[in-house]
Amino acid sequence: MSLQTDRSSQAGPDALGVRTRLFGSSAVLTVRGEIDYGTVPVLDQAVAELPSGLGSVVLEMTGVTFMDAAGLHFLRRLDAYGRRRQIPVRALNLRRQPRRVLELARTWPGTPRAEKFFGRAAPAGAPVAQEPQ
Fold it and tell me: What value does the mean pLDDT take over residues 30-50?
């Protein structure tokens, strides 16, 4: 399987970029910018275009500088995607602001459990970005 795509929202300070790459049977979506109501459709489109037969999906979030409730809704949809396909889905390397949003929403029904969904491990062979200092 071979795939590499780049998607982005409008240009400007609120832009969001998503690079999708395959490493074996794992899809890695590397996200940069802000995840909000105006940019989350780019993420939805990237997930919708993933090939069938994947073994896992990783959302690499080192470059995400901001996330609001629209990002929480997206993460719920991504978790449901993994459950429907019976594959692990993980979001890695959240910066302080997105992590804080998730901490505040942890009692919100449907929010993915942090220990299941979030972490720092990537699939074998996938490049891992360094967490910002």
Answer: 93
